[in-house]
Amino acid sequence: MNTLHQVDGALHVEGVSLEALAARFGTPLYVYSRAALEAAWQAYADAFAGTPHLVCYAVKANSSLAILNLFARLGSGFDIVSGGELARVLAAGGDPGKVVFSGVGKTTDEMRAALAAGILCFNVESESELYRLDRVAGEMGRRAPVSFRVNPDVDPKTHPYISTGLKENKFGVAIADAPRLYRLAAGLPNLEIVGVDCHIGSQLIDLSPLADAADRVLTLVDTLAAEGIALHHIDLGGGVGIRYRDETPPDLAAYGRVLARKFAGRREKLLVEPGRSLVGNAGLLLARVEYLKPGEDRNFAIVDAAMNDLMRPALYEAYHDIVAVRPRAWPAQRYDMVGPICETGDFLGFARDMAIEEGDLLALLSAGAYGMSMASNYNSRPRAAEVLVDKNEIHLIRERETISGLMSGERLVY
Ligand code: LLP
Question: Which residue segment(s) compose the domain that 112 sits in?
Answer without folding.
Answer: 103-272
